[in-house]
Amino acid sequence: MDRGSEKPVHHGDEESLLKWVVLIGRMLVRFQDGVAMTMSHTRQRLLQGFAVFCTVFLLLWTATFLYGSFYYSYMPKAAYSTPVHYYYRTDCESSASFLCSYPTANISLVRNNKNQVLTFGQAYQISLELEMPDSPANQQQGMFMIRMTCYSREGREVGSSARITMLRYRSGLLRTIGTLLFLPAFLTGAAEQKQLLEVELFSDYTDDPYAPSVGAVIEIMSNTVQIYSSQLYIHAHFTGLRYLLFNFPVMSALVGVSSNFIFLSVLSLLSYMRLLLRVGWRPKQYKIDGLSSERETNMDQGQQGDDRDGAADAAALLDPLQITPTNLSREGLDAEQTGSRSG
């Protein structure tokens, strides 16, 4: 009796243990499925985020490149300077006076033998800076004229200008006081007795696109003038969009890059939506074609017969092991008919 009474308890423990094992197994399977699902979703989100990041980075880089290309091609050089070296005839005193020549310099307006300094349609201010000693000869010189002539590649004159200048007047007492005050600097060579003269030759010079300037001739119309050195400066006068791009470069860059980025983003979004719509319309087009063909077959009687024969042939080719209730009922009816005939 005790053994019989212990058996149900033993079977109950096994059943409860089996239930717990099955429950734990189901929980592990669900946990494994949940972890796999979470990892799959996480991987998908990471891939989507990486794709979005790459797309945004590519659009931003393209927008920056477009703005940089536009700025480089549209904005001319704001300033250009070059030293001016003069030459003149040195046999004036030993020969006739008509052989004497003024100090003249030939300046090239082409950078690296290929790029022109002046841009078509841009206004420039051209000035000449003279470093002259404050000597009695220059003080007695008084006014003298400076002429600048621009020429094209064919050697034709395309622009000319002449300006008058002179040293600033300083009285003898003022020069004496300045010499005494700056005597240590003059003795050590830290300072020199000189004056800087800046002469504006062209205030609004615009290059001709049909005959661009490739050089200029600068002539100082005085034989006794004394010059330490000379420098030619060309400054661009920007107006309109170029003025904004030059005076507000950071704001212009932000606006330009943002505009390009928005335009490229909208264009990419429209292309993506068009692709999605094209892919979404394809199955519907197939369904419509199927319905139209089905209607055509329903209207044609001869085609219906062919379809039934094709369906019968397809049913005959099925696997004989695939038995359906309909087939079972037909086989039972056939067996009863054959039994009644034989009886």
Summary, kept brief:
By secondary structure, this protein is α+β, with helices and mostly antiparallel strands. It is 55% helix and 22% strand.
Q: What is the β-strand count?
A: 10
Largest beta-sheet characterization: 4 strands, antiparallel
**Which word captures the global form?**
elongated
Oligomer: single chain
- Count of DSSP H/I helices: 8
Q: Within the largest sheet, what's the order of strands?
A: 1-10-5-8
Head-to-tail CA distance between termini: 62 Å
Low-pLDDT segments, ≥5 res = 1-7, 285-295, 310-329
Mean pLDDT: 78
How are helices and strands ordered from N to C? Answer: HEEEEEHEEHHEEEHHHH
C-alpha Rg (nearest Å) = 49 Å
Please characterize this protein's 3D structure:
Helices cover 55% and strands 22% of the residues. The protein is an alpha+beta fold and 343 residues long. Helix 1 crosses helix 6 and helix 5 (241-247) packs across helix 6 (249-299). The protein is elongated. Residues 1-7, 285-295 and 310-329 have low confidence and may be disordered.
Key words describing this protein structure:
elongated; 4-stranded antiparallel beta sheet; disordered N terminus; alpha+beta; 343 residues
